[in-house]
């Protein structure tokens, strides 16, 4: 790993947008990974919380810590969104959708997806995020009555991002501020035409 340049600064984040989701089709150990073409979910993102699942162990000798090891097992993602259409929920959770109805059965299995979105900066650039292997979880639903002051009810949906079998990658972050060219970023999961990663 190269030593970074000194005294760098970064633009401050002011917005998040453009959630794209691509179903993971294949992911084989030491092999290849393929995805469907990413689907734009439109103007739904309000916030994304990314929380690594970390564990740390210390080695002791002669009454002191002599070494420490940290492991990140996965990443917990929480998306606050505008109300997701039922068709999108069914797609993310492995349910059937037909004629405006989401049909849930006990045998449904949530598939894995690759996801992309961007965080815009005050200086006009953006950071582009790609998570390679994500599984969404059934959301909690809270609905309230309308009161004197109207309040939007914004749902959240959680997901877990794990490492790809093919190459051990969990995610990547790309900064236009550092010279990354975002042209075609949302066209495929890894910048390869045909949807291959």
How does this structure look, described?
- Strands 1, 2, 3, 4, 5, 8, 9, 10 and 11 form a 9-stranded antiparallel beta sheet that branches. A two-stranded antiparallel sheet has the order 6-7.
- The protein is built from 1 helix and 11 strands, in the order βββββαββββββ.
- The longest helix has 8 residues, at 86-93.
- Helices cover 4% and strands 47% of the residues.
- It starts with 12 loop residues before the first strand and ends in a 22-residue tail after the last strand.
- The protein has a domain at 13-44 and 83-178.
- Strand 4 (45-61) and strand 5 (64-81) form a beta hairpin.
- With 197 residues, it is mainly beta.
Give the overall form: globular
User: Overall mean pLDDT score?
Assistant: 89
Q: Report the radius of gyration as a whole number of Å.
A: 20 Å
SSE string:
EEEEEHEEEEEE
Number of helices: 1
* pLDDT < 50 stretches: 192-197
Helix fraction bin: under 10%
Q: What structural class results from the helix and strand content?
A: mainly beta
Report the biggest beta sheet as strand number plus sense, adding barrel if it closes. Answer: 9 strands, antiparallel
Summarize the structure.
The protein has 197 residues and is mainly β. It is 4% helix and 47% strand.
